[in-house]
Amino acid sequence: MKRPVWLLIGVVLAVLVAWFALRPGGDGEVAADLVEQLATAKDRRPNADAFQVVDATIAGDTRSSILVREPSRLVYSVTVPDNGELRVGLGLLEEAWTQEGDGVLFRVLVGAGGPPEEVFNTLINPFGNANDRGWHDITIDLSEYAGETVDLFFNTNASAPSRPPVDNRTGDLAVWGAPRLYAR
Questions:
Q1: Measuring CA to CA, how many Å separate 128 from each of 57, 58, 157?
Q2: Which helix (H) or strand (E) covers residue 21, if one does?
Q3: Which element (helix H / strand E) includes 173?
Q4: Cα–Cα distance between 130 and 170 in angstroms, integer?
Q5: CA dist., res. 57 & res. 164, Å (int)
C-alpha cells in the first residue's frame, strides 16, 4: 500500500480509539463519591463515631467502604445528575460470617421534598445463608430526580422486621462498599 492509505488507516484507528475512550455511557462518570464525602453527610445516627471509612475485603474483593457496627442512619444531600444512578455494594465483614447472628437489614430511601420513600431493602445474613458471603452490588435508578437535590438515606437495622422486635447485634459488621452517584 502507498503511504497515504496507511496514513488514512492510522487516522481512522486513532479516531475510533478516542471515541471509545471518551464516549458517554458505559460505566458512567462518578458524580459523587460518598465515602469521600462521609464528613459532609447531613445526618449520622446514632453519632458520627458509629461510621468508619475502611478498605473492606469480602470474598477477595477490596473496596473503599463505610463500616457500621450498630443500627444506623446516614443521610447525604446530593444533586442528581442527568441519567443518575446510585451504585453500592452491601456486605458484612468476613469475621461476621462465623458469628451466630441473624444478619443486617440494609435499606436505601430517597427524600425529595416529602417523606423519604424506601427504594431498596434486603437482609444479608452470611452466618445463616452461605450465598450472602460476598458483596451484593445494587444499582438504583435515580433518573426521575435529574437536576433535583434529594436526600439519600442509608439505613442499617440489627435484625429483620419481626413481631416482637428483636435487637440481635451479634456479627453486625455492615459495610456500604464504594457508594457512588453516577451520571450514565
A1: 20, 17, 17
A2: helix 3-22
A3: none
A4: 17
A5: 34
* Distance separating alpha carbons of residues 106 and 124, to the nearest angstrom: 8
Nearest Cα neighbor of 70 from 58, 52, 95 is 52
- Report whether 67 contacts 174 (CB < 8 A): yes
pLDDT tens, the chain, 184 aa long: 566 655 555 544 444 434 343 334 458 999 999 999 999 999 999 999 999 999 999 999 999 999 999 999 999 999 999 999 999 999 999 999 999 989 999 999 999 989 999 999 999 999 999 999 999 999 999 999 999 999 999 999 998 777 667 888 998 999 999 999 999 9
pTM: 0.83
Gap between the Cα atoms of 19 and 12, Å rounded: 11
The DSSP code for 81 is P
